[in-house]
From TrEMBL:
Biased composition (Basic and acidic residues): 400-416
Bilayer-spanning residue ranges: none
Keywords: Signal
Signal peptide: 1-23
InterPro entries linked: AztD-like (IPR047697), Quinoprotein_ADH-like_sf (IPR011047)
SUPFAM superfamilies: Quinoprotein alcohol dehydrogenase-like
Organism classification: Bacteria, Pseudomonadati, Pseudomonadota, Gammaproteobacteria, Enterobacterales
Protein name: Metallochaperone AztD
Region of interest (Disordered), ranges: 395-416
Domain of life of the source: Bacteria
């Protein structure tokens, strides 16, 4: 076979193009904060790296915010307005094994939204969402991919009666809470596996007083008065086992759960001023940690997996070493925020992005920024109104040529 010889001029052009493509590849880090106001129907988008406001989206009511595992979508659940709005974060990653490419675009409101009475618990795993509605006889299960395309592939899953419960999506199934048969306004009494075709799978599992759920690794946990239900997947079907509380624990139970990132563990409240660290694989699964005062909010660190953070009503952020099972640092961040009063009064919330911890301070209209390495406070971010719920989206990746959308150009963009 003859070797194809290119004219020198064409070869030079091709070599130049290859060189410029390599030069155009750059490492890019982008992080954004999505911050909902406590009272107003707005979601602000803030550049986490420099504190600049990028967008303000108007929604229908004050929102609780949830990000998908991919970070590509942020869901604004507006319980009082009966609406779930969807926002494209503008930061997307494409995994190539040895590296990830990153796309950075302006955040935008997506056309797909979901409506129903009192939307509540939101659970997403592996690109599938289960949206609960406290006032409906069904939960909705749909895909993030459809939402991003401006479509809805939602299926309704029967939950027997309206109640304050939860659904967890698993491929062609969902695990749903079972309402109290005597009074659906009381806490649920158990969990069952239901196919998206409406058929029940296996036996119901008792879980009296079910309240609180979180995922970590390959396990999803539901908390009960008797312990935790641990849900894993075998093939495409979920399986449920019960992990009873240790007899060494004082009387009590978990009603709020968060799940570890990078390591498999759970943290739950255990009374107002204690938390419990839960390792389902350990013979001693439960370890209590005493807090200095009552807990306001807690969050895990997805970048430094052995740490979690608890904000307490004395205005302090407490760093928890989950391996040691103890508080390793405490710093004062805000004025005290008493847990007396209404459960939904504006109080601080925590999010972690790259090397910083962000804490909303709704009564002072700002977000505190702490360095995660030493918990030293940097310059705060001013936010109009009462900044409350907060999620962080972002990371680092390679960007190949093309136009890099600079966040600063979008500062005054508003969307209905």
């Amino acid at each position: 076979m003859k070797k194809l010889l290119l004219p020198l001029s064409i070869a030079a052009i091709l070599l130049g193009a290859a060189g410029s493509a390599t030069a155009a590849e750059e490492d890019v880090t982008a992080w954004r904060l999505f911050v909902a106001d406590h009272d107003k129907p707005v979601v602000n988008v803030i550049d986490a790296l420099d504190g600049d406001k990028l967008n303000t989206f108007t929604v229908k009511g004050p929102a609780s915010l949830y990000r998908s595992e991919s970070g590509a979508t942020v869901f604004a659940v507006q319980g009082s307005a009966g609406t779930v709005s969807t926002i494209a974060s503008g930061i997307a990653f494409h995994d190539h094994g040895d590296h990830a490419d990153i796309d950075v675009d302006p955040a935008k409101m997506l056309s797909t939204q979901f409506t129903g009475q009192k939307p509540g618990h939101f659970v997403e795993r592996q690109g599938k969402v289960a949206q609960w509605f406290d006032g409906e006889r069904y939960a909705l299960v749909y895909s993030e991919a459809a939402v991003q395309d401006g479509k809805s592939d939602a299926k309704k899953v029967d939950v027997v009666a309206p109640h304050h419960g939860v659904a967890v999506p698993y491929d062609n199934y969902a695990v749903v809470s079972i309402p109290n048969p005597d009074d659906a306004s009381e806490r649920p009494v158990g969990a069952r596996i239901v196919g998206l075709d409406g058929k029940k799978v296996g036996n119901d599992i008792a879980c009296p007083g079910l309240h609180g759920s979180a995922g970590s690794g390959d396990t999803y946990a539901l908390s009960c008065e008797t312990g935790l239900l641990l849900v894993t997947q075998k093939g495409d079907t979920p399986e449920i086992r019960h992990l009873p509380y240790s007899s060494a624990l004082p009387k009590g139970s978990v009603s709020t759960l968060i799940g570890g990132k990078g390591m498999q563990y759970f943290i739950g409240n255990y009374g107002p001023d204690r938390i419990v660290l839960i390792d389902p694989s350990d013979a001693q699964s439960f370890r209590l940690v005493q807090l200095p005062t009552r807990r306001v909010h807690f969050a895990v660190d997805p970048v430094r997996p052995k740490y979690a953070y608890v904000f307490t009503e004395d205005g302090k952020l407490n760093q928890i070493d989950v391996l040691k099972g103890e508080i390793t640092k405490s710093v004062r961040v805000t004025e005290p925020y008493s847990m007396d009063g209404h459960w939904n009064d504006p109080r601080p919330r925590i999010a972690v992005a790259e090397d910083n911890i962000f804490i909303t301070d709704p009564l002072q209209s700002k977000i505190h920024v702490l360095n995660a390495a030493d918990l030293k406070e940097g310059k705060a971010i001013s936010v109009e109104g009462h900044p409350f719920n907060i999620v962080a989206v972002g990371g680092s990746g390679k960007m190949h040529g093309g136009e890099h959308h600079h966040d600063h150009h979008d500062a005054d963009h508003k969307a209905e």
